[in-house]
Amino acid sequence: MKWEKLLQSGRGDLKKGVIANSNPYRSEFERDYDRVIFSAPFRNLQDKTQVFPLPELDFVHTRLTHSLEVSSVGRSLGKSAGEYLLKKYPDLEQKGVSSYDIGAIVAAAALTHDIGNPPFGHAGEDAISDFFKYHPAGRLWESHLQVGEWADMVAFEGNAQGFRMLLEKTNGLQLSYATLAAFTKYPRPSFVKEKLPKRRSHKKFGFFCDQKQDYRNLATLLGIPEIAENCWLRHPLAFLVEAADDICYSIIDLEDGCTLGLVSLKDVIQLLAGIIGDRFDAEKLDALETSSQKLAILRAMAIGQLIGEAVEAFCEHEEKMLLGEFDQALTDVIPSAEILERITSMSVKKIYRSQPVLEKEAAGFQVLEGLLEVFSLALYHKYFEQDQFSGKDKSILRLLPENFLPKHELPMPYLLLRKLTDFVSGMTDKYALSLYRKVKGIALPGT
């Protein structure tokens, strides 16, 4: 791979490779960031769970605040890595690329990294997948889908849903090619003939089968090689997007867990002091009056240290990334990797399996399964079992978005289900719960 091609600022039709017009006031990559900030899917993240159920108190992170923090860290990572790249490849600067451009690419891609996640956190992904795997109303559709299409339905993936949303014209995003590729941490579809489990970038999948050609066109435009059938290398900046997310959720989830009393302040200090190293000053920390002040300074220092370590790792492995010989998480090869692993273990035990989180996950399974059941059955009756199509089904389908149903032709079953999962996964936590209560007759409109 060549940086000159990987960083091109085109956007538009992936088939034609339309190059965007230059703007004297904003780079194409700054425009990406602004488009995301003003988009409806991004705004919806303010009412989607990060880890903890959305509380009345405002100190617990939502998907929105998490995404903003990941983007901030991503900008720092990208700008620092960009300064290294411009020194190593002076032709980039001659072609108009700046370190701010590279920071903007990573910041915009990081800002969108959770944009495809459904309500109720990662439990929402499992709930959608399990509905098609196990629920009788979900399994009705299997015989109507091809193998790759069914693989998409039984393994809902927020990253792939995000790629779909970024391409959806009605969202008005149309991000630049470089940002779209940096967003795609897992450049493969759900169903592949040859799996590459040793590659971090193929641990999950990054697009559904109906977007496979879109990614192929994107990879061709940017010169990203296909290493197996329908499997590509990562864009190198995707490693920085992933590192920004890893850094933030490791440190911030720990901070939230401490604030909620699930993890002791003593344990947090011990863990983060290990990352901060020689700069940690116990006396200065003790002089601070409140736990929140102590957590804030520890968080800032730890994140600053991890950014520096991740940039060094990126610079060290950059040539191997271009060759496809490096395919690990940057946070797995930095000096603080062992401490991050200890933080993850503690978070799983004391935070992710805490009572509030487990209750939220249980509710998410119930709500999303219930919504998918009523809507998918109504759709199935309308198109495949007309003799079962009832007045109840007609009322349910009227709750779908305008223009959801085709006016004349029989829709392809896969595309019908894709639109249904678009609808459900795009809901906020509160809207999903409210709609569930109404369609199940638990609450009436206006109550």
TrEMBL record:
Span of domain HD/PDEase: 59-259
NCBIfam families linked: dGTP_triPase (TIGR01353)
Biological source species: Echinicola pacifica
Record keyword Hydrolase present: yes
A single MF term (Gene Ontology): dGTPase activity
Biological classification of the source: Bacteria, Pseudomonadati, Bacteroidota, Cytophagia, Cytophagales
GO BP, one annotated term: dGTP catabolic process
Pfam families from the UniProt entry: HD, HD_assoc
Keyword Hydrolase: yes
Entries under SMART domains matching the protein: HDc
Keywords: Hydrolase
PANTHER family noted in UniProt: DEOXYGUANOSINETRIPHOSPHATE TRIPHOSPHOHYDROLASE (PTHR11373:SF32), DEOXYNUCLEOSIDE TRIPHOSPHATE TRIPHOSPHOHYDROLASE (PTHR11373)
Name the record gives this protein: DGTPase
InterPro entries given in the database record: dGTP_triP_hydro_central_sf, dGTP_triphosphohydrolase_C, dGTPase, dGTPase-like, HD/PDEase_dom, HD_domain, PHydrolase_assoc_dom
